Amino acid sequence: MSPRALFHRVLQVMDCALVLLDVHLPDIYVREPEGGLRALHLQGYSEDVVRTQSFLPPGTPAPQLDVALAGESRWYSSTEELLAHYPQLANLAGAYEARVGLPLLAEEHSLGCLWLSFADRRYFSAEERDFLIALAQLCSQALERARLFSRALPP
What is the pLDDT of residue 84? Predict the structure, then answer.
């Protein structure tokens, strides 16, 4: 299976799992060699959001970048909670309320961030947190396999 096909399969599996929690389609960011994040998948956003969020350079105050660099999940129950930490995102907040940033980790190094948006305010139960963390771990494994597979391909 090619890296692109594997990535699309991961999206299909994630979409099926996330429907259970009423999640907007997941946004997947991968780390670039210089330390920024590039979006592999952004869907359902305005052109302005896609333009400004497709690449997050190193040093950009962005929750996705902070999640990837710290290797720690971030849970925002509402837009107000997110904007308290990142007021510069006010013009990009859009139609979603709650958000979750989950690190994508492989062998203790950061591959990027899985960013999830929810239409309504939400308190994340322990069970939901565990489920989403497990899903991010599965996504990490798939991305790492795709990365290793693409390295093994002849130039």
Answer: 95
